[in-house]
Amino acid sequence: MLKTILIVDDSAMIRRIVSQLVQQLGHQSITAENGLLGFELAVKSQPDMIIMDIEMPIMGGFEATWKIKADHRTSHIPVAFFTALGSEESIVQAKEAGGIGFLNKPICREELSQAIHDIIGTA
């Protein structure tokens, strides 16, 4: 079943690569370049899952996830954090913000497939 996955990352290259992987796995991808745009797109498009970078200009991933989880229109959407900063502190902050998964950069197809399956029940 086709799912929509929102990819929020300030790197155009990362957005393109992850978007292609999501599509190869049989899903639709939409992208945003910062947390504020990610929040607005989440409200508008109601994706099945969000992959959220942590460090971004304008609004970072933690703040964007707090907004997503605090808004009744988007609070149900699962958020997996995506970052090169896999520190214990980042993992704790990700969970406190409402994230349910943590993906490290660079990502491989198998890891992304497993995360999508674990979070929204499909590969």
Automatic annotation (TrEMBL):
Alphabetized UniProt keyword annotations: Phosphoprotein
Protein name as catalogued: Response regulator
InterPro entries the UniProt entry points to: Bact_response_regulator, CheY-like_superfamily, Sig_transdc_resp-reg_receiver
The keyword Transcription regulation belongs to this UniProt entry's keyword annotation: no
In-chain residues carrying the UniProt-annotated modification 4-aspartylphosphate: 53
Domain Response regulatory as annotated: residue spans: 4-120
Entry keyword annotation includes Lyase: no
Protein source organism: Thiovibrio frasassiensis
Any GO BP annotation: phosphorelay signal transduction system
